[in-house]
Amino acid sequence: MRWPRRRARAPATMRRRFVTPEGVDLRLELGPAGARAGAFVVDALLMLVILVLATIAIGYLLLSSVRGEVFAILWLLGAFALRNGWFTLFELGGRGATPGKRLLGLRVVARDGARLTAGAVIARNAMREIEVFLPLSFLGMQTAQGVADTFLTLFALSWSGIFLFFPLFNRDRLRVGDLVAGTWVVRSSRARLAGDLVQAAPADRRVFSDAALNLYGIHELQTLEEVLRAGRPDAIETVAGIIRAKADMPDDGDDRGFLSDYYVALCARLEQRLMVGQRREDKHAA
After folding, report:
1. What is the pTM of this model?
2. Where do transmembrane segments lie in this chain (predicted)?
3. What is the mean pLDDT of residues 3-17?
4. Are 64 and 121 contacting, i.e. CB atoms less than 8 angstroms apart?
5. Span 17-62, pLDDT tens digits
6. What pLDDT does 141 receive?
7. CA torsion sign, 229 to 234 to 235 to 237?
């Protein structure tokens, strides 16, 4: 009697479809759990250094004029603002990454392919307070008061452990905050910088009208940069066709050259407007 052979499972891929509003599939690679944990440790160490230095400085300046209870309250408020503001402000930036994520080659993106919104960033980082910092802060306060109970200690550590290891038990490596906010943490490209792409453009660049350059903003410029870096012919052809159709420009058969020239011109236009205080986040902004 022969037992049926089990089919070998295909290795789980970390690449996911990431379709932009323009219909371009960038196929981003998810950040592994180890890299995400490492990025969090780096950020936590940086915040700890800042907190220690700020504590020493503020304590030196205010120790003689502020009571110990007031100083403790100010310290707790400052620590809360630091750990929440750190992740939120950095991820709201153009790179969508904290220093730890940048060091490990990660960034945060919206799973629907749209621009990462402030609401999504705030939601994913507010959940971190519940996942990690709240039980650990409670445990630290109990220990400092000398009334730490074994059950409370195990409960706090178990609570944090469940949320910390949650990304290991779903295929997209999502935190609970990512589920709530609709975000992914993906590997960022370590290819050439934007300046290198500009310098690589030919000397006899195409000239674009104001109407063509007014079609897109910073978010679309970043998407275009990723398309050029990836170098996938199908994505380049799709994006070039979309821009030509919207700008009412003829097809000259050189899709990559067309996109490179458009990238240079759009980058220059947006930088010129930034110099006069006009920042356009995406194509929907005025």
Report:
1. 0.61
2. 37-63, 70-89, 151-169
3. 54
4. no
5. 666 655 555 667 888 878 888 898 999 899 999 988 888 877 776 6
6. 60
7. positive
pLDDT in tens, 239-262: 888 888 888 888 888 888 888 888
Whether the per-residue pLDDT at 211 is higher than 50: the answer is yes
122, amino acid identity: I
Query: Which position has the token pair 């550590």?
Result: 157
Structure tokens at 186: 């993906």
Own/partner pairs, 277-285, CB within 8 angstroms, 24+ separation: 279/218, 280/217, 280/218, 281/115, 281/217, 281/218, 281/219, 282/115, 282/216, 282/217, 282/218, 282/219, 282/220, 283/215, 283/216, 283/217, 283/219, 283/220, 284/217, 285/217
